[in-house]
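Reading group handout, session on sequence-to-structure problems. Before we discuss, look at one worked example. The prompt was deliberately terse, the way you'd type it at a terminal:

> structure DUF177 domain-containing protein

The input record follows.
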Amino acid sequence: MKKVSRSVPAPKDMGIEVIGVREGAEITLDLRLESVMEGVLVTGTARAPLSGECVRCLEPVERELETDFQELYSYPDADTRTGGHQGAADAGDDAEEEDTLFLEGDLFDLEPVLRDAVVLELPLQPVCQDDCSGLCPDCGVRLADDPDHHHEVTDIRWAALQEIQLSGAEDGADENQEK
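And the output record:
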């Protein structure tokens, strides 16, 4: 068993449309590498800065993400080491082999595992605050900046009655002036 701590730059496209880890941002990895019969078991924790925008008000969102992951990297000849069969592979074995990550010499590619772990931990709808009011649907003003913001909304079904009421008020004003 070996423990390793590293800081690595984030690869491209590690996130979703509204939030993610920026390319080149520093990802801190704390790894535990264990030799097992089939290969090397990698258990680790990744910490990375997230940046994106609030889905309600479009303000910038900055957070820190911490996620755990675990993956087995198999030896290329794992079937012969474990006493497995060496015959014609059927469809089930092909699908299993596609999902298997292999060691390449003394190296393993941690990027796909890290990408899966980080993206699965991302909030689908990040908000700047839990009680973010968002934007005004009529004019786009940020409601947190102007909490008393509102628009007079007339229901289209009552518009004709409102016109009658306004014309009645004008007629009443005209009658008062004549008296």
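Points for discussion. First: The first strand starts at residue 2 and ends at 9. Second: The chain has four helices and seven strands.
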